[in-house]
Design goal:
Elements (H helix, E strand, L loop, with lengths): L5 H14 L6 E5 L5 E5 L6 E9 L2 E6 L3 E4 L3 H14 L4
Antiparallel strand pairs: 1-2, 2-3, 3-4, 4-5
């Protein structure tokens, strides 16, 4: 059974996904009951999964390695994801 946050989580992830092409990134939503966003940089081939999680200050996006962005700062979060995937070391 899906959590009560599934719809809201999906909405935040979709909003972020809409901003990623402007940063040169591609993405795909995966997972039904607990959706996450698979994001990759077409030039570098680097990729990560982005999770959306509620917090006491609103929704946050979390990704590896150690990335975090606010759902109410979509442009900044998309830029930070691009920077992560451009700078991340392979392997």
């Amino acid at each position: 059974m899906a959590s009560t946050y599934t719809g809201e989580r999906r909405s935040h992830l979709e909003a972020l996904a809409a901003r990623l092409p402007g940063q040169g990134l591609a993405s795909r939503m995966i997972g039904a009951d607990d959706p996450v966003l698979w994001v990759w940089h077409p030039r570098t081939g680097r990729q990560t999964l982005v999770f959306a999680a509620p917090s006491h200050r609103g929704w946050l996006f979390l990704w590896s390695p150690g990335g975090q962005g606010k759902a109410d700062e979509l442009e900044r979060t998309a830029r930070m994801l691009r920077e992560t995937l451009e700078l991340a070391q392979p392997g």
